[in-house]
Write a structure and sequence with these properties.
With about 90 residues, this protein is an alpha+beta fold. The chain has one domain: 3-Layer(aba) Sandwich (Glutaredoxin), CATH 3.40.30.10. Helix content is about 40%, strand content about 20%. It has 4 helices and 4 strands, in the order βαβαββαα.
């Protein structure tokens, strides 16, 4: 089974982005990171996809996880590992 693609819109200096990077790193996730300050039009793309203006914005497969707090909550509930394996949670 192929693991879903994980994309995070972020900046290099954001402490919440770093917390998300660390958690996903501990999970062994191959993360595609898009720096909204260095990639032209990335902020607009992020806002269009997520409906949010803040970083990080994290997507697992087709699922918008949200920001760092959302990611940490998902992990605390025990749903992050399932999402990282299948791309869906029990909520969907």
């Amino acid at each position: 089974m192929t693991r879903p693609k994980v994309v995070m819109y972020a900046t290099s200096w954001c402490p919440y982005c770093e917390r998300a990077r660390q958690l996903l790193g501990r999970k062994g996730v191959a993360l595609e990171e898009i720096d909204i300050e260095t990639v032209p039009a990335a902020r607009t793309e992020m806002m269009s996809r997520s409906g949010r203006r803040t970083v990080p914005q994290i997507f697992v497969g087709g699922t918008h996880v949200g920001g760092c707090d959302d990611l940490l909550d998902l992990d605390a509930r025990g749903d992050l590992d399932k999402l990282l394996q299948t791309g869906v949670t029990d909520d969907e």
